[in-house]
Amino acid sequence: MELKITCIPGDGIGPEIVREARKVLDSVAKSYGHRIQYTDILMGGASIDVHGIPLTEEAVETAKAADAVLMGSIGGDTTTSPWYKLPPNLRPEAGLLAIRKALNLFANLRPAILYEELAKACPLREEISAQGFDMLIMRELTGGLYFGDRKTIEENGIRKATDTLVYDENEIRRIAIKGFDIAKKRSKKVTSVDKANVLDSSRLWRSVVEEVAKNYPDVTLEHMLVDNCAMQLVKDPAQFDVILTENMFGDILSDEASMVTGSIGMLASASLNDTKFGLYEPSHGSAPDIAGKDIANPIATVLSAAMMLRFTFDLDKEADAVEAAVKHVLKEGYRTADIMSEGCKKVSCTQMGNLLVERI
Amino acid sequence: MELKITCIPGDGIGPEIVREARKVLDSVAKSYGHRIQYTDILMGGASIDVHGIPLTEEAVETAKAADAVLMGSIGGDTTTSPWYKLPPNLRPEAGLLAIRKALNLFANLRPAILYEELAKACPLREEISAQGFDMLIMRELTGGLYFGDRKTIEENGIRKATDTLVYDENEIRRIAIKGFDIAKKRSKKVTSVDKANVLDSSRLWRSVVEEVAKNYPDVTLEHMLVDNCAMQLVKDPAQFDVILTENMFGDILSDEASMVTGSIGMLASASLNDTKFGLYEPSHGSAPDIAGKDIANPIATVLSAAMMLRFTFDLDKEADAVEAAVKHVLKEGYRTADIMSEGCKKVSCTQMGNLLVERI
Ligand SMILES: CC(C)[C@H](C(=O)O)[C@@H](O)C(=O)O
Ligand SMILES: CC(C)[C@H](C(=O)O)[C@@H](O)C(=O)O
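Above: the input entities. Below: the structure tokens describing the complete assembly.
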């Protein structure tokens, strides 16, 4: 099979971790008889430095021409980097929001898994973490407060800023369908999170989700208020299978959930549209403080590449092989600095990539 | 001194816990030579049952005529209670939002403290909880998504819902001042939480908070994105002193912080306006499942009454006495069911109230 992949190395540790993920993909291609054609595009700070803007139209066109996008991470230190002296719409993150919208990537999937081998890194007590957990946050990614109208005006000398949270039923329905579809292949439970006791958009969310649920009689649906969900993630993360929620709540809850696992350097993500096309990136940020030191953890990016094999290319066996390789090196005790613990063998970013390649 | 207090027993366990808090207040009044004049009003489900609406104008007037309001909790089981068959603006929670607005209670203070005696209930690992933590969430309570325009319309047969997030600089300034004022009396650090990489309202928030900070050279200000804050609360809660944030973020983060303490039955809150007037209520909900069983924990309400003594009446000695009594009974090993642990003595709601009264 021919795989056309656009890479966004990005900023900070981005280039290092994408390099290792490509090595792993290449090794998969070789073993299973596929051919990969890579193209690189600039985004975020890397694009600002060259083009003055965080994402060019040409870059978007290149991405569109591929089957999938593999991204590292973007952004820099917000207090010291010159990128953050620019107006908001020219900063690195604006590139990320722009590509999500341009490619219509409305469904953001963020698994939050407690890896048995890394259970010690979990910030929760053993009584809570002992049973393990494996949830997936299905976050709506192209609507809500992120893309509603906004303005800052001065009225009688008083500055006033407005953002708008808008959802229509179609936007809600398509993400709900993605949520139920994936729950069907997992533990068959959807927790839809909203703030229906306050927001109109949440009340519409809730009723559309209920309509969609009717087509999935074997999937259990429960509704949870966002404030309660923020509590439950800490109290009892094992109760969750698929968490289905809107853009801003998903941003907050998925980060909370990833921290609850204790190993954010391991967490992949996929952003999908209505076709097989997707953008795949680690859940963590660009970690400018450790960039270029070859100590970053490439596993989240490698697992994002595995999600790409599975979702975009339907190459389940190949995806399984990558995930098995990750489990394998963890079992053997290899760790990058961020997940290092006593008695394990500390390896660099490059070494981790090599170990994974050997085990494909 | 003459203290005029309006009580809102409310729904669920509300009446039981308010009764115990009143006993404690009465005992303080007796010991320190004050006279308390109580009036009761209905709110939430209790008001719906009598008046058909969750808050009457007369109730608001009664509250306004007092120096402070002591509230239990409102609301019922959202799936079984008939209150939740009513339209949203007639449900119990609408009463709470209405009284916040009517009394201009823009500053919501929620301390999240890890009590040494209850450290075992903390869901975090001992390495994290061992150093303890004591933070205060200063949440803006009368603006943002909670009170902006909202509407649900049908456009070409498609339902579409809109909520609006609005802040003007005056609303931000007055809550920021409250945040810095209280930080000055605590550990002198303010963490202002926003989503300035996306929202206009957050960018205005950030610049007004920076203006206010200039008048507090001895208080350290840091900015944190809301998604990162949701992570940091789990990873390292001890880093926080005062968290200053807008209404919706404050709703989510204060609940997360309260769960991180592991003893939400202990957490008080105060909602203040620009005068000494305030509404005081426990951080927890109405727990309809255990209502009327005399097993609820009255301590959060008792500590809310202590906040009232301190903030509204400037009776610091009296507030200290209440807080000391709480510490005392915990040291002696008395626990209500929610915070019970091995080797402690389990007591009812009434017994806990009596124990506190005896120790004033
Ligand atoms: C960088 C930022 C705009 C982005 C978001 O808020 O969506 C990030 O936090 C994420 O979750 O991918
Ligand atoms: C009941 C609800 C409307 C309320 C809120 O969201 O403010 C509650 O969660 C709170 O935090 O006091």
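Note for the figure: The mean pLDDT of chain B is 97.
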